[in-house]
Structure formats: C-alpha cells, structure tokens
Amino acid sequence: MKEVLIKAAMVVIAVLAAGATAPSRAQDAAADGKALFMKNCAACHQASGKGIPGAFPALAGNKFVQGKGTEVATVLLKGRGGMPDFSDSLSDQEIATILSFVRSNWGNKAAPLSEPEVLALRDVLQVDHFSNGQMSNKH
C-alpha cells in the first residue's frame, strides 16, 4: 500500500511539474502573433519592426501603432497609402493576434485587440465579414 501511495505521489508531482513548464495562453498567443507577423508583415516592416526608411514605416516605437486599437485595425481592414487591405485574407482572430503582437513588442506598450473588437469594426467600417470558404481570397 505504501508503494502505491508513493507512486501516486510521484505521478502527481510529475503532472504538476509538466504543467508548470507548459506554455501559457499568453505565450501561445505571442508565438502565434509572431508567426502571423512574419508570414504577412515582416517582408515590408521587417522582423525587427524597424521597417525600411522611405518605403515602409517602422512599427517599433510607433505612436500610431500604440494609439487607439481601432485606428490601427482600420489600416489592416481598409489599407492605407501603399499598404494593402487584409480584410479578405486575414480572419478577425488573425488580425487581432497580429496587432496584439505588434502593440506589445519592440518597446511598444499598448493594449491587445480581441477578435470581437475586429469583427465589430468590420461592421462600423462596412467591410465584409471574413469568409474562409471556397470562394474567399484566403490562401
């Protein structure tokens, strides 16, 4: 009986230790945000967020990026200047994840955005809801 209790205690300790080292949701979201940024944004804004002077603005330390979240999301949903709109190619969750990553990295300290906030902004801006169906532009 004593051996069974010892083995059970060892299993509990192992499970607790594994849970303590498992990534948190915030860490997972940051990793996803970085991956989405690298895939969709880094070619222009660079992995460092420093952009390319005279061509693509820096996101690192950018006051606009750290400003009102809906204004930053509007740029992704409608485009601006030479930046394309991503409303058909990125879901609301992907836009929120990318912007949350950008707004909290490279010295930026701004609140994250949520999927419902991006969805509500689509309605305000009269931008079609994202569709990942067969006929969408998602690739």
How would you describe what is shown here?
This protein is mainly alpha-helical and 139 residues long. The chain has 6 helices and no strands. The radius of gyration is 20 Å and the shape is globular.
Quick summary of this structure?
The protein has 139 residues and is mainly α. It has helices at 2-21, 25-40, 42-45, 69-78, 92-102, 115-125. The chain is globular, with a radius of gyration of 20 Å.
E-strand count: 0
Determine the mean pLDDT.
Answer: 83
Strand content: under 5%
Shape: globular
Cα distance, first to last residue?
A: 59 Å
Helix proportion: 40-55%
Number of helices: 6
Briefly note the structural class of the backbone.
mainly alpha
Rg, rounded, reads 20 Å
Largest sheet: none
Low-confidence stretches: 8-23
Query: Secondary-structure element order, as H and E?
Result: HHHHHH
Q: Which assembly state applies to the chains in this document?
A: single chain
